[in-house]
Amino acid sequence: RAKTSGSSNFRFFELAMDATILQRSLLEQRIRRAMSEKKIEPEFQPIVRLQDGMILGFEALARWHDPEFGSVPPREFIPIAEDVGLISELTEAILVKACKAARRWPNTIGLSLNISALKLQEQTFPLRLAAILAEHELLPHRLMLDITEPRLLRHTRQLQPVLEQLCEQGVRLALDDFGIGTSSLTFLRAHPFDTVKIHGQFSGGILDDPEKAAVVEAILILARGMGIRTVAEGIEDPALINRLQTLGCHAGQGHVFGPAVSADVATKLAARGYLFPASPDDHDSSGA
Ligand code: C2E
Ligand code: MG
Ligand code: MG
C-alpha cells in the first residue's frame, strides 16, 4: 500500500502533522471538497468464515483517491476529519454509499462499518441510522458497527445509552483491533458486543511468535466463554486459516481472501458466496 501511494501521500501526512491553523483549514477544505466531489468512497473487504470459505459480510473501508495527493489512507484523513468537525458528515456519506452497495447482496451477507466514537456521541445517531437502513431496505441485524476501544474509553459514560439503543434496534457491535492499545476485558464485558476483531498484528504472528499465539488463544477462549464471535484480521498466510480455525476463531479477513474492492466487485463476490485463499504463487509479494 505504502509504495503505491507514493510521495504525494507523504506530503499530505507532513502537512497534517505540523498543521498550523491555516494549514488545517486548508486540509478541512480539501476533505470537504473531496466529499462534495465524491472522491471519498467506501471499498469492501470480504469477511470469510474460516471453516468453509463462506462470505459472511464485507467491511466498508473509506478510500480517498485525490488527483493531487494520491491515495490518502483512512488512518490519515479520518483523524483530520474528526479534528475539523467533518466526521459526522463523512460517516453518513460512507454509510449511505455502503447501504446502496449492500442492498444488492444476498440478505445473508452483512455490512461492517467503522464508526468514530465522535459519531457515537451524537444522541440522534441511532434514530438517524434506523432511518437510513429503512430507506435502503436493510434489516438492522445485517449491519455491524466496528468500534475501536482506546478512544471510546474516554467517553464511556455518554456512549453507554447510544450503544444500548443501537443494540435494541438490532444493530450489531464489534470491538475492533482487540489485542492492541488499551484493550480491556472490563470494557468488553461492560458493553453489548457481538464480535471481537483481533488485530492483524496478533493474528498474523501466531505461527512464528509464541507470545502472539498465546494472546490470540487467550482472546479466543475468552470470547467463546462470553458467547462472542471472533474475526481475525490481517490474514496474509494461508497456513493461518487452519491454525486459527483449530483455535476456535470463527471468521477472518485479510489479503489471503482479498483486499477491499469496489462495490461492483463486492457484489459479484457476494453472489458467488464463497471465497478461497489465493494460492501462494499469487502472493509472492506478501513474503508468505
Ligand atoms: P480496521 O477497521 O481495523 O481495518 C482493517 C485494516 O487492515 C484496513 O486498513 C485494511 O485495508 C487492512 N488490511 C486488510 N487485510 C490486511 C492484510 O492482510 N494485511 C494488512 N497488513 N492489512 C490488511 P485501512 O483500509 O487502511 O483502514 C485503516 C483503519 O482506518 C481501519 O482499521 C479503521 O480503523 C479506519 N477506517 C477505515 N475506514 C473508515 C471509515 O469509513 N470510518 C472510520 N471512522 N474509520 C475508518
Ligand atoms: Mg474495522
Ligand atoms: Mg481492525
UniProtKB/TrEMBL annotation:
EAL domain spans which residues? 24-274
Q: Does the keyword Chloroplast apply?
A: no
Parent-protein residues present: 210 to 497 of 502
Mind telling me what this protein is named?
Bifunctional diguanylate cyclase/phosphodiesterase
Alphabetically ordered keywords of this record: Membrane, Transmembrane, Transmembrane helix
